[in-house]
Amino acid sequence: MAVTVVGSAEAVQKALNCSDADFAAYRAGRKQPNQAEFETLVSIIIREQDKIIQRNREVLAKIRANSNKR
After folding, report:
1. What is the DSSP code (8-state) at residue 19?
2. Cβ atoms of 40 and 34 closer than 8 Å
3. In the prediction, which pLDDT does 6 show?
4. pLDDT of residue 63
5. H-type helices in 1-70, by residue range?
6. How far is the C-alpha of 2 from the C-alpha of 12, rounded, in Å?
7. Could you give the CA distance from residue 9 to residue 20 in angstroms, rounded to a whole number?
8. CA-to-CA distance for 5 and 11, rounded, in angstroms?
9. Could you give the C-alpha distances from 53 to 5, 14, 34, 46, in angstroms and in order?
10. 35-40 average pLDDT score
């Protein structure tokens, strides 16, 4: 999910600071991340979702501002 949200497997792997083999095993479901890696993944997802929410709020604010002009 983190790769989908971030849009870059490399960025997620770098944030996890794990080997290519471990990262491939995580993505294939053959290995579970340790607690610290899991927390990093959750933080990545939350941070990216926050960015999406902020962008949506900005778009909604513009729409509301334009509808009030009418």
Report:
1. -
2. no
3. 86
4. 93
5. 2-6, 9-16, 20-28, 35-68
6. 7
7. 11
8. 11
9. 13, 24, 29, 10
10. 94
Q: Does the structure show a pLDDT above 90 at 67?
A: no
Share of the chain above pLDDT 90, in %: 81
Question: How far apart are alpha carbons 1 and 24 in whole angstroms?
Answer: 14
pTM above 0.70, yes or no: yes
First-residue to last-residue Cα distance in the chain: 41
Cα of 11 vs its chain's centroid, Å? 10
Q: Are 6 and 49 in contact (CB under 8 A)?
A: no
Q: Is 5 exposed, middle or buried (0-12, 13-18, 19+ CB in 10 A)?
A: middle
Report pLDDT digits (tens) over 7-18. 889 999 999 999
